[in-house]
Design brief:
The protein is mainly beta. The chain contains four helices and six strands. The longest helix has 6 residues, at 37-42. The radius of gyration is 23 Å and the shape is elongated.
């Protein structure tokens, strides 16, 4: 047997506010190309506003933080095999089923960073969210 579950949304924007994306919480990879006078003078790539722990105009709500949060996630996949009853009877069992499954295997989204889960729409929780956990299972069900 085989089952698969996809989950997603389309045509949705989230406001990943500066309150939770600036360095007041954590420095992460997206901050590596933030604006500094030195980077600007050197012509280095700049893909993020200036970082600061002080009050800043960069903390004013703006369209930089309003992003397409549409996504599709491969939420669950399971493969199973039920041993024919004539074979399971040979080991004294009524039913044997082996399976492998995975949860949160892939996510396709348009977010500019993988530091957020597109499923979280609460902008306060975004700053405190943990990465999505992938889970793999192998198992066997035996009925006597």
């Amino acid at each position: 047997d085989f089952s698969v579950l996809f989950q997603g949304v389309k045509n949705v924007n989230n406001f990943y506010s500066s309150r939770n994306t600036f360095a007041q919480r954590n420095y992460v990879s997206r901050h590596l190309e933030s604006w500094t006078a030195e980077r600007a003078a050197n012509g280095d790539p700049i893909s993020y506003p200036r970082l600061t722990t002080q009050q800043s105009p960069n903390e004013i709500n703006n369209t930089f933080f309003n992003v397409d949060a549409s996504y599709v996630r491969l939420k669950n996949v399971e493969f199973g095999y039920t041993v024919p009853q004539r074979l399971s009877k040979k080991v004294g069992s009524n039913h044997i089923r082996m399976y492998a499954s995975g949860i949160n295997l892939l996510t396709w989204d348009k977010l500019p960073t993988k530091d957020f889960d597109p499923e979280i729409s609460d902008y306060i929780a975004q700053g405190f969210s943990f990465p999505v956990t992938r889970l793999y299972n192998l198992g066997i069900n035996v009925t006597f």
